Amino acid sequence: MLIQTTAIVLKSFPYGDTSLIARCFTLEKGKMSFIIKGARSKKSGSAALFQPMSHIELIFNYKESRNLQIISKRSFIEIWPNIQNDLKRITLALSILEMTDKTLSDEDPHPGLFHVLVETYRAFNKGKNNLNVLFWFYELALLSHLGFQPDLDQRELPGLMLPDPSEGPKSRKILEMLIKEDLASIENLEVLPKDNRVISDYIQANLFYHFDTLNQLKSLNVLKKILS
Question: Are residue 102 and residue 172 in the same domain, yes or no?
Fold first, then answer.
C-alpha cells in the first residue's frame, strides 16, 4: 500500500556504512521507523532531511510485516531556524520530541496531536509566545490526545495526591486556557513566578503518573532548570 504523509522526525541514527534509521511521527500512521539507504553517502545529501525536528513529506510502500519501512520519496516541508539558534528554544523543542517518542505507541495515529506539534514548533519559531507557556501547551495536549486530559477539580488519582492547580494567583485560569488548545488566546500571556512553579509541577505530576517512561527522560534535569 503506497502511503504519502507528512512527518516530524523524532530521532535518527546511523545504520551500516551509509544508511540511516529514522523514527518519525507521521500524520497518517503515527510513530514509525524507516531505513533510508545511502542517506549518509556524499552524493545523497538526504541525511539533512532526517535530523530531529525536521518537518518532511514521505512516500513509502507500507508493508505490515516490516519493522523498518523503505522510503521511496522524501522532501522538506519547512524548517525552524529561530529554534535552532536559541538554546532555550532548542532544549524545550527537543524535550518535546523526546516526550512524544516515549509516550506514543508504534503505528497508533494521533492526527490531532500531530497538528498541535506542528503548530507548537511554528509558534516556537516565531517567538511571540512565552516559551514556558508553549511547552505547557504541548504537554497538556499530549495528555489530552492520549486520553488523560487533566480534570482541574480532581486533586487525587489512585495512589497520588496532585499539586493544587489553583495555588498560584492565576495558575488555574492559565491551565484552563491551555487545555482549550487555542494558541491565539495564549499569545503574550504573562505568568507570575508562583504560577510558573505551580503549573509546571501540576503538569509534570500528571505526565509522570500516566507515563512511567518519562522517568527516563534524558533532558529532565536541564528542563527543570529552564522551566523554573
Answer: yes
